[in-house]
Amino acid sequence: MIFKYLLLVIIFLILSGCAHETNYPNFSSKSNQYASPSGKILHSEGNIIKYGTPDLEQHAMDCKLSPNGKILAVEGRFYLVLVDTKTNKIIRQINLKNSFLSKKYSGNMYSGIIFSNDGKHIYWTTSLGDILEATLTKNDVKVK
Questions:
Q1: Any idea where the domains of the chain sit in the sequence?
Q2: pLDDT-based confidence at 19, cuts 50/70/90?
Q3: DSSP secondary structure letters along 49-117
């Protein structure tokens, strides 16, 4: 009988901990500080570079620095963005949502970004197991 009440108390404590209200701090975007859904404070040490389309899900899933350190490739759910590391400006944005890839990879997850040794090509994988390639000198993406 005690075991039954003890179990009910444990369940009650677990459930009461799951349902609570949290007041998140309101930070100005100028301060580079934001509150995450978990309540932790996120602080950017550098500049925040915004990219993509506001009506699509936006978050960086992976990133890789080019072999010469001049380009940062940022992989998102619908974009591959190339950032000039000296100026922090976006030099190219490949929209995967509106390309021929969207027919096959709509809602797909991408990961594992890497540059070729000469820095002229970028490769990344899809959750379907395909390898995609973007050439830095051309505006194309192809399946390897």
A1: 52-143
A2: very low
A3: ---S-TTS---EEEEEE-TTSSEEEEEESSEEEEEETTTTEEEEEEESSSSTHHHHHTT--EEEEEE-T
- H or E element: which one contains 34? strand 33-35
Class of the 52-143 domain? mainly beta
Q: Tokens in use for 73?
A: 């490739």
Count of Cβ atoms closer than 10 Å to residue 59 Cβ: 7
pTM exceeding the 0.85 threshold for the entire prediction: no
The pLDDT tens digits of the residues spanning 132-144 come to 888 887 666 665 6
C-beta of residue 141 within 8 angstroms of C-beta of residue 101: yes
- Nearest Cα neighbor of 124 from 96, 90, 83 is 96
